[in-house]
């Protein structure tokens, strides 16, 4: 039974599928301190959060069973991604579910700012009928600068068009072609600062976007600009903004997010007559909260059940069309990696080389490479390794991962070849294919062509091709109660080097393997276990 902890308020309807899952128990425990969460997280397989819970290194370290942290929303700045990746904890988010809601909040803020609605409301309910202090501005014919034209920025731009605004947009990924399609003018940050009447930011907070609007930008800013931030606190330098408002450069600002949340009581935004604020409500609608909770619950279930998933923040995204082509190979890839590692005993691996031939040569195979690398490393590092941290662990151990492709594949429609290069300049090669109707097959071991189903217990024997060896091996295993299910022998030339692969019904004791090596002309015997 998987245990899921929900540590922030998340829509009940959205997590219903987790609650209903027969293999999952869900517990809610919100408002915990870091120490309180660290004390209990060791009991859980999954943690679901919004933006309040800080999933720190300490929480990750204490989460010894933790497979996944699910963020019901977009931003993952409350989650220590590096710590998660190192421990192989998958971090997923729900990037699409709150786009429209946050875009609408941005618009609500822009209109409230243009018409002083919060200030006028406060005065009116305070008993003052003041019709003079709140002269507003229209949005029509004004220039809106949008910094960050991702999901939310693009939706904001669409709606601004309907209000008759001209849009200047900047995003490092915004091409001229896409700008034309979105009916916005491609601009630089400088163009926006010097020309916009309203400016809204929709970027993540990164070292590059932190304080991207600060004193130097305010100094050249178009006078009277109004600024909205419903993205992340810190994109706009809060203290420099207050100065710019007080100096008359900026006419007003509307902020949903703060550099530190919640802000201190004496934060200069609070009670400033020209700044309106909301407490990080951008995503707070019934619809968005249901959407993000549904999305994240679905993904958590997939991860707990070892099924393919998308939206992992600490792994590169994969298009569904590519995923569906790669997925049938995941198990084969992991087994080839594991097989290769098991025949490379006691030698330091310095390179994992994967060659994709045939059907797999024309697509991005990185997700499959991860399964292969996991298979190789798991043999030595155990369950600590998974597809999230395997590349990181390989790099840490100075194991190079190299990939090559070839359109043709020696008569197979697809062929995966895993070669482990050791520090002693030796190579171990295992190649496999997915055969239509027959499933997974290993078709080459080092230089020998073979045909084995990669499963269960196998013994790989290397020997010299001499009469009588097969009989002696059979007798010795029989004497030790090891039943042989199938056997294959491979050699290149008569009397030369040869291999024997035996599929046996159960594990073989070390003593039996050692005894095998006492047979004359038998060079080595290694047990391979594939699950
Ligand atoms: N207030 C809220 O409650 C709330 C709700 C949802 C999202 N958000 C935040 O809103 C922001 C945008 O969310 P989204 O879903 O549109 O994300 P997104 O990833 O779709 O878009 C972000 C865009 O910012 C661009 N960008 C990155 N660096 C930039 C730079 N230096 N200059 C200009 N553009 C840059 C990226 O290229 C990307 O296109 C995120 O920070 C997210 O966390 C806030
Ligand atoms: O959980 C929230 O309400 C915050 C949502 C928002 O900041 C996000 O990044 O998705």
TrEMBL record:
Supply the Pfam families for this chain.
2-Hacid_dh, 2-Hacid_dh_C, ACT, PGDH_inter
Domain named ACT is located at: 458-531
Query: Which residue spans traverse the membrane?
Result: none
**Which EC number(s) does UniProt give?**
1.1.1.95
Which major enzyme category is it? oxidoreductase
User: So which domain of life are we looking at?
Assistant: Bacteria
Task: Write out the GO biological process terms.
Answer: L-serine biosynthetic process
The family database entries (InterPro entries) matched by this protein are listed as:
ACT-like_dom_sf, ACT_dom, ASB_dom_sf, D-2-hydroxyacid_DH, D-isomer_2_OHA_DH_cat_dom, D-isomer_DH_CS, D-isomer_DH_CS1, D-isomer_DH_NAD-bd
What Gene Ontology terms describe what this protein does at the molecular function level? NAD binding; phosphoglycerate dehydrogenase activity
Per the entry, what this protein does is: Catalyzes the reversible oxidation of 3-phospho-D-glycerate to 3-phosphonooxypyruvate, the first step of the phosphorylated L-serine biosynthesis pathway. Also catalyzes the reversible oxidation of 2-hydroxyglutarate to 2-oxoglutarate.
| The family this protein is said to belong to | Belongs to the D-isomer specific 2-hydroxyacid dehydrogenase family.
Q: Indicate what this protein is called per its UniProt record.
A: D-3-phosphoglycerate dehydrogenase
UniProt source species: Paenibacillus rhizosphaerae
């Amino acid at each position: 039974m998987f245990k899921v902890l929900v540590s922030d308020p998340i829509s009940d309807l959205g997590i219903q599928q987790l609650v209903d899952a027969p293999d999952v128990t869900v517990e809610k425990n919100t408002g915990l301190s870091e120490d309180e969460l660290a004390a209990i997280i060791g009991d859980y397989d999954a943690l679901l959060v919004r933006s309040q819970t800080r999933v720190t290194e300490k929480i990750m370290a204490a989460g010894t069973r933790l497979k996944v942290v699910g963020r019901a929303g977009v931003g993952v700045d409350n989650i220590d991604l590096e710590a998660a990746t190192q421990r192989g904890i998958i971090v997923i988010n729900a990037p699409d579910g709150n786009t429209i809601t946050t875009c609408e909040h941005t618009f609500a803020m822009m209109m409230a700012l243009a018409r002083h609605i919060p200030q006028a409301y406060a005065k009116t309910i305070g008993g003052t009928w003041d019709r003079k202090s709140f002269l507003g501005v229209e949005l029509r014919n004004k220039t809106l600068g949008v910094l960050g034209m991702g999901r939310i920025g693009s939706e904001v731009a669409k709606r601004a068009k309907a209000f008759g605004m001209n849009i200047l947009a900047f995003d490092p990924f915004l091409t001229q072609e896409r700008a034309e399609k979105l009916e916005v003018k491609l601009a630089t940050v400088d163009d926006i600062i010097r020309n916009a009447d309203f400016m809204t930011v929709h970027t993540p907070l990164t070292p590059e976007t932190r304080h991207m609007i600060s004193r130097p930008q305010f100094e050249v800013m178009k006078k009277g600009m109004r600024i909205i931030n419903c993205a992340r606190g810190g994109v706009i330098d809060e203290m420099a903004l207050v100065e710019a408002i007080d100096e008359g450069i900026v006419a007003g600002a509307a902020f949903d997010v703060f550099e530190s949340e919640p802000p201190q009581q004496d934060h200069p935004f609070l009670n400033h007559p020209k700044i309106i604020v909301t407490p990080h409500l951008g995503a707070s609608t019934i619809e968005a909260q249901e959407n993000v909770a549904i999305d994240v619950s679905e993904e958590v279930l997939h991860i707990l059940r070892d099924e393919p998933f998308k939206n992992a923040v600490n792994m590169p995204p994969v298009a569904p069309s590519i995923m569906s082509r790669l997925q049938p190979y995941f198990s084969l890839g992991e087994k080839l990696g594991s097989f290769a590692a098991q025949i490379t005993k006691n030698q330091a691996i310095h390179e994992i080389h994967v060659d994709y031939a045939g059907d797999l040569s024309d697509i991005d195979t990185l997700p499959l490479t991860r399964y292969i690398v996991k298979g190789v490393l798991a043999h030595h590092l155990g369950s600590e390794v998974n597809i999230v941290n395997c590349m990181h662990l390989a790099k840490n151990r100075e194991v190079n991962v190299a990939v090559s492709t070839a359109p043709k594949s020696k008569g197979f429609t697809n062929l995966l070849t895993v070669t482990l290069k050791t520090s002693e300049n030796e190579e171990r090669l295992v190649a496999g294919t997915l055969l239509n109707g027959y499933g997974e097959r290993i078709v080459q071991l080092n230089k020998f062509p073979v045909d084995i189903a990669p499963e269960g217990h196998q013994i790989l024997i290397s020997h010299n091709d001499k009469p009588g060896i097969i009989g002696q091996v059979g007798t010795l295993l029989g004497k030790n109660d090891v039943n042989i299910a199938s056997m294959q022998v491979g050699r290149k030339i008569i009397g030369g080097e040869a291999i024997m692969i035996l599929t046996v019904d159960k594990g073989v004791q070390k003593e039996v393997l050692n005894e095998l090596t006492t047979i004359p002309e038998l060079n080595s015997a290694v047990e391979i276990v594939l699950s």
